[in-house]
Amino acid sequence: MKELLRKIPKVDKLLNDPELKELLGDNPIFFLKKAVNEALKEIREGITSGKFKELDNSTVKEKVKENLRKLTKPRLHRVINATGVVLHTNLGRAPISEKVADHLKEIITGYSNLEYDLKEGKRGLRYRNLEWILKELTGAEDVCVVNNNAGAVLLVLSALAKGKEVIISRGELIEIGGSFRIPDVMAQSGAILKEVGTTNKTHLKDYEEAITEETALLMKVHTSNYKILGFTHSVDRKELVELGKKYGIPVYEDLGSGSFIDVRKIGLSYEPTVQEVLKSGVDIVSFSGDKLLGGAQAGIILGKKELVEKIKKHPLNRALRIDKMTLAVLEATLRLYLDTDKALKEVPVWKLLSQPMEEIKRRAEKLLKLTGKTEKAEICIKKDESEVGGGALPLQKLPTYCVAVKPKGFSISQLDCKMRSMETPVVGRIKDGVYLLDMRTVFDGEVELMAKNLKRALEES
Ligand SMILES: *Cc1c(COP(=O)(O)O)cnc(C)c1O
Q1: Contact 219 CB / ligand 1 (< 6 Å)
Q2: Most Cβ neighbours (<10 Å): which of 88, 178, 204, 329?
Q3: Residue 227: which domain range?
Q4: Residue 169 is part of a domain; what is its CATH number?
């Protein structure tokens, strides 16, 4: 054992190794030191525990190389989404287009007129570049944009209903991912929750009977990620607006995803667009910037001027303000919506949702062909269903094609794990004992790398 321990190379020798130095490239030397220390620790422990019976120089160096490759890769990195969930919150929701990314790069690698009025030569307003286009697209009187829609809900309730009552249907007291619960947000804002109706049925008279001097808002929340089916009733948006008008109480709707495009265009069943909701007379709406809008993380608040002004003046607005990266991505994305056909073609989320089946199939065939023959698994193309995701349209599915892999002699979860551990990880899904790679959410440029990963995963299993 002593003999083996003596054979471990010196730290300095490894730090000066030309091959390791080349692999480090222009990364901070910190990473090489850490890679060496971790490798030597592992080897020392392996020797003392009796796991390593012999040691040659290349074992140590290979360990360092492996560590170094892992350490120098940023922890936030690209992943290939083969889950078929277009708006996958855990995988970063909406991808943005190259063109939008180019604009973002231009803005953030230098200075910009973020808050500077070039005509007057003095301070300008951060949001003016978004305001005009959101008004143009939706017909809203006024606009406020914050960090995300959870923030938007908190801000709207704080600004319009603090210390007052907000009436909401019991069936809409939702929890969405990341412990965002309407009752908790309401409590945080200082507004008093007044729930009406029952879980499955709420009628207009339930709202009306709950109205008092203390009522500040009638609220509607999109039940984004679940649906009550069967013996149900909820109050129509128009009826609620009428009721609000009768008593002079504003109506606020948290739309969750909020689409500018009629989803029937891509074969899904009807959901009102943001424009339609505003047109129906709802006073304030809010929705996310990175769900069906396909832009950056943001919470967009639209509605009546006097209410939005109150919202804008609230101190939380400053605390939740968006940065130039968000602004750049949102403006460039929103511009595309001035022409619906352009948006369908150029906003990646809409492109992924509306792509023809043949295109998805072609990608599946390419993956199958590039992966080639193997003894390790049965591979074929299988028709299945993709999801919109992001909590939007929970029950609606889109037909898709997957590459289905049934491993021979090892488990599906082993294959799944292996695919996730690749340098560019691939996240697929498991269904009915088959590992599925859904080609709807895979980009053309990713298929080759996917095939390489799949081949390697199968060979090494
Ligand atoms: C997604 C969602 C939110 C939260 O939006 P974020 O932009 O993720 O903060 C709030 N309400 C509903 C109904 C949602 O679907």
Answers
A1: no
A2: 329
A3: 98-346
A4: 3.40.640.10
